[in-house]
Design brief:
This protein is an alpha+beta fold. It is 37% helix and 14% strand. It has six helices and five strands, in the order αββαβαααβαβ. The protein is globular, with a radius of gyration of 17 Å. The two termini are 30 Å apart.
Length: 174
């Protein structure tokens, strides 16, 4: 199944990887990994990948997620902190847009970042990403939170992990 899916992606000009993923429930679970995508051409690739997944009868369940890495090149640490502050403040609103299985800390691979009531003040006082990740009881200590800042050191991105898995491009528009 993975070979057929990989071949279909390649034959359609998509340089995406298909890898087994033991964190997903179901028969022959896999993860689909895109290369870095940009602008309209990137959206077209997502549309095409969703169509290919449908043609292969790919199924999703509540163990599936849709993760997006946003490149942070050119952002100051203050701008990165503003993203964290905004996401922390609006997490409950974002929760209302995704599948119930991705809300609060119902999924161990996308835990809440709300944390302590004083967490916003703590974020505001921190001066480095490593300080943010190593702060006692930090929700950012693990990469398995809704907003993964540990990916800054690895990929120079912030990873948004909260969206539910889907093969429908329309689901990704909100």
């Amino acid at each position: 199944r993975y070979d057929d899916l990989s071949r279909s992606l390649t034959n359609n000009g998509l340089n995406w990887k298909v890898e087994e993923d033991s964190s997903i429930k179901g028969q022959r679970p896999f993860e689909l990994i895109s290369p870095p995508l940009k602008k309209q051409a990137g959206l077209k690739q997502v549309i095409e990948a969703c169509a290919i997944l449908k043609s292969h009868d790919a199924q999703v369940n509540d163990s599936c997620g849709f993760h997006v890495h946003i490149d942070i090149d050119g952002l100051s640490f203050e701008q990165i902190k503003n993203i964290l502050i905004s996401y922390t403040q609006y997490e409950e609103v974002i929760d209302s847009l995704v599948d119930p299985s991705r809300r609060d800390s119902k999924n161990r691979y996308c835990r809440t970042i709300k944390g302590k009531p004083q967490w916003l003040e703590i974020i505001k006082s921190i001066n480095t990403v490593s300080e943010l990740c190593s702060y006692p009881d930090s929700p950012f200590y693990s990469r398995y939170c809704k907003l993964n800042v540990r990916s800054i050191a690895l990929h120079h991105t912030i990873e948004f992990r909260q969206h539910h898995g889907t093969t429908k491009f329309e689901d990704l528009l909100y």
